[in-house]
């Protein structure tokens, strides 16, 4: 049976140390998962349960390697923000996954950016509308190569940060997550049947802010290296 239109390519991530690829199914993103970031966004981290939104898989932009990657500034925004995050990639899924065994489902980890048209997101918040226009722009999910957990374990602490033109903008520690990776996997699995190929962007530390055309972003996580993008 033939498709009536050309089949869209499936997004796949490079795996460090391998020629094999990791095919992506869905991209879940947790909101306000570092206390300081929750406060800078006007929320109370001590009372708010985790919440999630999604990006389309084809909004991912593969980054990494020795050279900077051109990152297109999206249309219809004058306030485009960076948010550095650790990304967890699932090798297996399920429903109602216990926290105690949740990390057994994680294949590996990568550096990611949840790029956000903040002005559109803020407008959506004011009007009680979905965040898609703010969060799901083309290329709004730059991501580096996957580091298999079989090699690096499951990072629970260590530096996470981002600089713009060499000036530090975000700096935190993975240990400052309000909800751990295991808790996020378990929580999500109560609402969705998670599947192999699902990604979870696990939240960003404080310091989010705008980036402009012509500037260079460098995002780093201890043990996962760095990705560099030139905003064009």
Automatic annotation (TrEMBL):
Residues 27-231 form the Fumarylacetoacetase-like C-terminal domain. GO terms for molecular function: hydrolase activity. This is Fumarylpyruvate hydrolase. It holds the Pfam family FAA_hydrolase. SUPFAM superfamilies: FAH. PANTHER family: ACYLPYRUVASE (PTHR11820), FLUTATHIONE S-TRANSFERASE (PTHR11820:SF90). Keywords: Hydrolase, Metal-binding.
């Amino acid at each position: 049976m033939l498709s009536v239109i050309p089949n869209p390519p499936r997004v796949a991530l490079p795996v460090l140390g391998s020629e094999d690829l990791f095919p992506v199914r869905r991209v879940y993103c947790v909101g306000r998962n570092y206390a300081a970031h929750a406060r800078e966004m006007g929320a109370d981290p001590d009372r708010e349960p985790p919440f999630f939104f999604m990006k389309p898989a084809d909004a991912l932009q593969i980054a990494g390697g020795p050279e900077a990657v051109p990152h297109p500034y999206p249309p219809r925004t004058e306030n485009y923000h960076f948010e550095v995050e650790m990304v967890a990639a699932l090798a297996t899924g399920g429903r109602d996954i216990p926290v105690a065994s949740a990390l057994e489902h994680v294949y590996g980890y990568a550096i990611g950016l949840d790029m956000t048209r903040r002005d559109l997101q803020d407008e959506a918040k004011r009007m009680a509308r979905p965040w898609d226009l703010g969060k799901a722009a083309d290329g709004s999910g730059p991501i580096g190569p996957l580091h298999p957990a079989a090699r690096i374990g499951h990072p629970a602490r260590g530096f996470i940060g981002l600089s713009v033109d060499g000036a530090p903008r975000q700096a935190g520690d993975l240990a400052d997550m309000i909800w751990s990776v295991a808790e996020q996997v378990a929580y999500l699995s109560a609402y969705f049947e998670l599947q192999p190929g699902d990604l979870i962007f696990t939240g960003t530390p404080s310091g989010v802010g705008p980036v402009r055309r012509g500037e260079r972003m460098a995002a780093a996580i201890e043990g996962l290296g760095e990705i560099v993008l030139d905003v064009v």
